[in-house]
Amino acid sequence: MTTDATRKYQELYRPQFHFSPEEKWMNDPNGMVYFNGEYHLFYQHHPFGTTWGPMHWGHAVSNDMIHWEHLPIALHPDEHGDIFSGSVVVDWNNTSGFFNDTEPGLVAIYTSAGKYPESDRPCQTQSIAYSINNGRTWMKYEGNPVLSNPDVIDFRDPKVFWHKETCKWIMVIASGQTITIYTSTNLKNWEFASEFGHQAGSHDGVWECPDLFELEVDGNPEQRKWVLFVSIGDNPRFKEGSRTQYFVGSFDGTTFVNDNKKETVLWLDYGRDNYAGVCWSDIPVEDGRRIYIGWMSNWRYANVVPTKEWRSAMTLPRELSLKTSEEGVRIVQHPVKEMDTIKKATIEYKGLTVESASPVRIPLKNQLNEIVLTFEQCDAGKFDIVIQHSETDKTVVIYDFVKKMLLVDRSDSGEVGFSESFSIVQEAPLKPVNNKVKLQMFVDTSSIEIFANDGQSVITSLIYPSDGKKELVLISSEESTTIYDLNITPLESIWT
Ligand code: FRU
Q1: How far apart are alpha carbons 325 and 457 in whole angstroms?
Q2: Measured in angstroms, how far is the CA atom of residue 233 from the centroid of ligand 1?
Q3: Other CB atoms within 10 Å distance of the CB of residue 473
Q4: pLDDT per residue over 221-237, tens digit each?
Q5: Domain spans in the chain, listed from the N-terminal domain onward
Q6: Which of 204, 191, 313, 199 is nearest to 267 (CA)?
Q7: Beta carbons of 447 and 296 less than 8 angstroms apart
Q8: Per-residue model confidence (pLDDT) at position 488
Q9: Neighbouring C-beta atoms of residue 165, cutoff 10 Å
Q10: Distances from the Cα of 74 to the Cα of 56, 148, 252, angstroms
Q11: What is the pLDDT of residues 381-415, one digit of tens each?
Q12: Which of 402, 348, 340 is nearest to 372 (CA)?
């Protein structure tokens, strides 16, 4: 990071504990891989503008997924096209032949977004590149593309992993309205294996950015299931814009089988601003975590959000697990434990009661906070947790005791006029557990992420508030609400 960067990271709305590009446009996270002690994050990047344009892969590294060092652009457009989303793997056994047998290296598998020869018709194919110096520089394979287009317009975002049971590389790739699966022994020759998704889940938009991985259910190593992430693009007919769904099922090295009925739709996040998320590859077995990051924006308004020098940030890195609930096996997600590295001393409040006619006001000294509170389920009314960012701007988090829903209203949160969709209230189903509701909220300069009931429901939401006097205001609408505990932890900026 240059010395200039400290000043750089002071701009209006600049996220202070979320990754954002040093400057210009960013969308999807790409090629996340852990190798030689570093977490790599590549990302869709337009280095010449703050709106989407010819895609490159930007690059950053970290040793804790929280503090980042920006590196030069990793992949530039070439004769095969712009560099769309994809993944990176460690080729431990030199299956590709790019390395020598003692020192493994990295292979990137990405979409080349080009044109058919002598034509203006878009053509998406898959290409590879490799690095022998920890991702610092990349060589494109001379045999690119390694997977040609099967005559579908949208054929992109390959996510590749090693399947040890069949000793093969598996690629999941978005193909219009389905996910196709290919296999390979060397990352260069790919064979079609199967297709998933006809009529399954949501088809509200084009399918993009898949990921497929295995997780234990309820922490039991004997009981494992496969999870398939599928992001679905913006469609003006639906108010939510772009969002990510997931499927739970089984995978045998060839075919993914959905455990749920075709019409079941499972959302990864009930907020508007978590898209195109995929997991890190090659996290060491001793660590064992499955960690993902999403793009904290929405195609509905990503190009017009009110930031100047850069556009977009990533969500916090989140650890995934599967838990059995009344509805079935579902994903739960937690911010990674490395978040502790930026936590300052917690201020604890115990045994607060919020009477219906008298709001409780708690001053917030810091701009960046983790706020965790647990309150009792009431029979009627609503409980509002108002994050007052300044005299004029507030984000209202509401728990509706009757409907058992968590809502986030950002209509008065600051700058909202850049898109009509931005002010629509976000809603997540949330049943109390043992008569209690627990919310863990991370408030950055321009986002709020809420992990409810230990990550069972999540709402990720951008906000653009002005800076000023801050407080937390708790309002109980009908009955009094008992708060068991409220912890406020100021957070440090990752850029200082
Ligand atoms: C998802 C996406 C991908 C594509 C990339 C282009 O947000 O549309 O499908 O590869 O963005 O930037």
Answers
A1: 12
A2: 9
A3: 16
A4: 999 999 999 999 999 99
A5: 19-337, 343-490
A6: 204
A7: yes
A8: 98
A9: 8
A10: 8, 23, 34
A11: 999 999 999 999 999 999 999 999 999 999 999 99
A12: 348
Q: Does the C-beta of 276 come closer than 6 Å to ligand 1?
A: yes
Mutation test residue for ligand 1: of 42, 85, 229, the one with most atoms within 8 Å of CB = 85
- In the chain, the amino acid numbered 242 is S
Which residues does the annotation mark as catalytic? 28
- Which CATH superfamily does the domain covering 343-490 fall into? Exo-inulinase; domain 1 (2.60.120.560)
30 CA → ligand 1 middle, Å: 10
Confidence (pLDDT) at 357: 83
The residues, any chain, with a CB within 8 Å of residue 217's CB and separated by 6 or more, are 223, 224, 225, 322, 323, 324, 329
Token pair of 197, please?
Answer: 């998704």
Number of H helices and E strands in the chain, helices first, is 1, 34
The matching CATH number, chosen from 2.115.10.20, 3.40.50.2300, 3.30.1330.10, 3.40.50.920, for 19-337 is 2.115.10.20
* 343-490 shares the fold of 19-337: no
Cα–Cα distances in Å, from 343 out to 177, 214, 230, 340, 442?
A: 42, 31, 33, 5, 11
Q: Report which protein residue has its CA nearest ligand 1's atom 8.
A: 208
Give buried/exposed letters for 41-73 (b at 16+ CB in 10 A, else e): bbbbbbbeebebeebbbbbbbbebbbbbeebee
Do 348 and 487 form a contact (C-beta atoms < 8 A)? yes
Q: Write out pLDDT tens, residues 425-444.
A: 999 999 999 999 999 999 99
312: which 2 tokens? 């977009």
Q: Is the Cβ–Cβ distance between 156 and 84 less than 8 Å?
A: yes
Q: What are the backbone angles phi and psi of residue 250, rounded to the nearest 5°? A: -130, 160
Cβ of 110 less than 6 Å from ligand 1: no
pTM value is 0.97
